[in-house]
Amino acid sequence: MKSLTKCKDDRTRRSLYVFITDEPIKQILGLSDSDEIPSNQLYDLLDNRWRSTKILPEVSLGKLSSNLQKNVSFVLQDVQIIGGRLALSGGGVIKNGKILDAELSIDDIGTLNYLTGEIQGGVLSTQLDSMPLAFEILEDMSIKVKTNVVNNHVSIDIDAETSGRISEDWNEQEDSFTDKYNDQRLKAIEAEIQKRVNHLIKKLQTDVQADAAGFAEYMRVQQPDFWDQYGGQWDQYFTEADITYSITVIVEDFGTKGSTKKMQ
């Protein structure tokens, strides 16, 4: 059974980070690796967000308390012991103050970050002409979220943008000097992100049935009248909402291959 744990400290502070786990807490906080304190290992893992898309932004005890008071759904990252070391895994969804049976996989976590724009770096792997293609994100991702309500039916439009470089391209016909080929790579990368996000949105609406992406805050700010009346039923409205997501990828360079001109 999943349980909550926070970084160990001699005093409870609202700035402490909170995780979820099905490991015995005694084993989590008693794990020793080169005499490093287990809680410090968790801090170090969170610091890797600039190199991995599959790490959620930290959730402090204060933010946890605020979410519970607002009665909005949210996600906590799972902590596991893998190979004798602490590792961040998937995530548990908290709804109405309870941990849902429906869980998010580690890949779902990565996709959730694409949906919410909470990405500082990492590598996206896909294929072009059945050959491996890798895109490395070099800067923070940005998103714009627009909500609308017509006859109590909610629509949410997300426009995302990310930039980076082509870190791997195994296509023997690769030619970074031609706009046609570069357009094909861009479309392949954007299509991969789009496919993953659409799959996750469907999972959140049908399987999880909870707004684990945090769109509640956008609704509260952009649609205050609706929120005042129906905010307490938001997860139900979320499951029925029309959600669209679009992504723009900007390639700033091509690693060791091709040109270094910026293109979109």
Automatic annotation (TrEMBL):
**Which intervals hold domain Spore germination GerAC-like C-terminal?**
89-255
Chief location: membrane
Stretches assigned to coiled coil? none
Database matches in Pfam families:
Spore_GerAC, Spore_GerAC_N
Keyword Membrane belongs to the record: yes
What the entry lists under InterPro entries is as follows: GerAC_N (IPR057336), Spore_GerAC-like (IPR008844), Spore_GerAC-like_C (IPR046953), Spore_GerAC_C_sf (IPR038501)
Indicate whether Signal appears among the record's keywords: yes
UniProt keywords (A-Z) are:
Germination, Lipoprotein, Membrane, Palmitate, Signal
The membrane-topology field of this record reads: Lipid-anchor
Q: What residues does the Spore germination protein N-terminal domain cover?
A: 9-77
The domain of life is Bacteria
Q: Where in the cell is it found?
A: Membrane
The family line of this record is: Belongs to the GerABKC lipoprotein family.
Protein name per its UniProtKB record:
Ger(X)C family spore germination protein
The taxonomy runs: Bacteria, Bacillati, Bacillota, Bacilli, Bacillales
